[in-house]
Design goal:
Distance between the termini: 34 Å
Strand order of the largest sheet: 1-4
Number of helices: 14
Number of strands: 4
Number of domains: 1
Structural class: mainly alpha
Shape: globular
Largest sheet: 2 strands, parallel
Helix content: 40-55%
Order of helices and strands: EHHHHHHHHHHHEHHEHE
Strand content: under 5%
């Protein structure tokens, strides 16, 4: 699973559950310091900054393919609907969700307004209005990584206590999409802004059109694809692999495997946090440009194995995250 060399661990680490609470850090998040060092040594990294011109065309194809699938599935049984949602629709919608991730960093167009508007379009096959809200909380995750009460990517204390037994972790993974959707309402609630209202209204109008034109099953297919892929699905491994602590002392992890081709290279997560101004299509070039900064870091090679280890290992659970005082 891991190619990077690991430091020796105490024998008890793999045998006892992490039940004492989160790991609290008094230091700053690691990416800003590494970014400064890398830019001093490799100033040419800045040549990788800026939007990727071809990503918008990939997104348009993904939107068209998902709408085409919804049309074709309008009269099938619910069993077939669920199966296609898991095997095809979920993968497409996860790619669209991760294109919204790229759009939140303004990595498709030079104009921030164009990125916001295109995010509303990309959001349509997802079935639920997520683009505008995700942009706010994701950028906060970057600027306030690990800060309690601000970084809503962190599990809550209740999740930490519950996610210690394999069965509980498996159930939580199955409904992980709901956890990510509801957590900000309790950790860092905010009043909806005009973009979130626009996102809601545009999505509502689109969903009503799908229902009126193609029926209930076509409508169900779209949000079902979004939710099913955030649960017990190999592509959902990136939610666990990115920041759950698999090696004490390291709080961000990359994944170098074939599923990056389907997810705009979101697996290059250390690289992304180091340089959020570089689109996913160029993160591999960043790693090749400065390999010594990533060679010693632990990384994942299989998202499926990441999910399995999260469930099966007693030393990894809801408390396996690094927190900071806000």
């Amino acid at each position: 699973m891991f190619e990077a060399p690991l430091e020796p661990r105490a024998s008890s680490v793999g045998d006892e559950p992490r039940a004492r609470g989160f790991t609290w850090s008094e230091g700053p998040e690691p990416h800003a310091l590494r970014r400064r060092e890398m830019l001093q040594k490799y100033p040419q990294i800045k040549e990788l900054y800026g939007p990727c011109p071809r990503t918008k065309y990939v997104c348009a194809v993904l939107v068209a393919s998902q709408l085409g699938a919804a049309f074709l599935l309008r009269d099938v049984s619910f069993g077939w609907l669920a199966l296609v949602s898991y095997l095809f629709g979920g993968v497409v919608n996860q790619a669209l969700l991760l294109s919204i991730h790229e759009l939140s960093h303004n990595l498709l167009f030079k104009s921030p307004l164009a990125n916001r508007l295109f995010a509303l379009f990309v959001n349509l096959p997802i079935g639920l209005p997520v683009a505008a809200t995700f942009r706010y909380y994701h950028l906060l995750h970057h600027t306030e990584q690990g800060k309690d009460g601000l970084d809503t990517d962190l599990p809550t204390e209740l999740e930490g206590r519950l996610l210690q037994h394999p069965v509980a972790k498996g159930i939580w993974l199955f409904g992980q999409g709901l956890a990510y959707a509801l957590r900000p309402l309790f950790v860092h609630p905010k009043r909806p802004d005009r973009w979130e209202i626009a996102n809601f209204l545009v999505q509502l109008a689109f969903d009503v059109c799908i229902f009126e034109l193609w029926g209930l099953k076509a409508l169900i297919y779209l949000p079902l694809s979004s939710l099913i892929v955030m649960g017990l699905h190999p592509v959902a491994g990136h939610y666990i692999s990115e920041h759950y602590v698999f090696r004490p002392g390291q709080e961000t992890y990359s994944y170098y495997g074939p599923l990056n081709k389907l997810t705009f290279n979101v697996g290059y997560h250390n690289e992304h946090h180091d340089f959020p101004y570089i689109p996913g299509s160029r993160l591999e070039r960043l790693r090749r440009m400065a390999p010594e900064y990533y060679a010693g870091l632990m990384h994942h090679t299989s998202w499926f194995k990441t999910l399995w280890q999260f469930v099966s290992r007693r030393d990894i659970g809801g408390y396996s995250r690094v927190k900071r005082r806000a």
